[in-house]
């Protein structure tokens, strides 16, 4: 069992490289998002050129304000981790799971060239192709077990890294050390749920992408591309690395 969310167990994204015709959506090369919490803010650089679907799907939820009122509700530390190898992360998600859009295919670190380093933001999942930008986790320290070929998930596909914290890691670490004695109905997350979840007051872009991409453009492009995939395409993206 890998990283899962009490907020959502359906969480991971898809690689566009190697799809039919080699098509890659023309998305912006970079974007920055600010998560505003009561105790401060966290700024995240999104690697949209390397991980266009993962970053784009996360931006879709940000741009549609679905993260406003969401929360960071789970922390994984060595003293409460029930998986192997052990990892260290915080995890959050949107305010209303009913507003989740369809999941997208899995964008592995083998394809993107990204790694799960200190401050990396990535998408939780169950099986490949079941994730979305409706939930995220942020690494505390380097977590190679979460990369492609790592053993945190038995399928070896790793998780879909798509950005990295550029400002506010001290706040991330403070959240990570918060009391995690909150209730859980799943033995796997027992001891990991925050007693007092950290509310995300707002999530928003700090600026437009360098190509002038407007906020809603990301959601529309990701939706259009995802809708062109057949069931066979999605299966191949998830498992063929």
Provide structural commentary.
The chain has 241 residues and is α+β, with helices and mostly antiparallel strands. The protein has a single domain (29-239), classed as Cyclophilin (Beta Barrel), CATH 2.40.100. The protein has 5 helices and 8 strands; from the N terminus they run E-E-H-E-E-H-E-E-E-H-E-H-H. The chain has helices at 52-63, 109-112, 169-176, 215-228, 231-239; strands spanning 31-37, 40-46, 71-76, 89-93, 120-123, 135-139, 160-167, 193-207. Strands 1-2-7-5-6-4-3-8 form an 8-stranded antiparallel β-barrel. The radius of gyration is 16 Å and the shape is globular.
Summarize the helices and strands and which ones pair or pack.
Elements: E1 31-37, E2 40-46, H1 52-63, E3 71-76, E4 89-93, H2 109-112, E5 120-123, E6 135-139, E7 160-167, H3 169-176, E8 193-207, H4 215-228, H5 231-239
Entry keywords:
disordered C terminus, 8 strands, alpha+beta, single chain, Cyclophilin
Summarize the structure.
With 241 residues, this protein is of the alpha+beta class.
- Amount of helix: 10-25%
Number of helices in the DSSP assignment: 5
Number of domains: 1
Order of helices and strands: EEHEEHEEEHEHH
Radius of gyration: 16 Å
End-to-end Cα distance: 20 Å
State the name of the first-level CATH class.
Mainly Beta
Q: Tell me the strand order in the biggest sheet.
A: 1-2-7-5-6-4-3-8
CATH architecture: Beta Barrel
Provide the structure class. Answer: alpha+beta
Give the beta-strand count: 8
The percentage of residues in β strands lies in 15-25%
Low-pLDDT stretches: 4-29, 209-216, 233-241
CATH structural fold name: Cyclophilin
State the shape. globular
CATH fourth-tier homologous superfamily:
Cyclophilin-like
Mean pLDDT: 82
| Major sheet size, sense and barrel closure | 8 strands, antiparallel, barrel
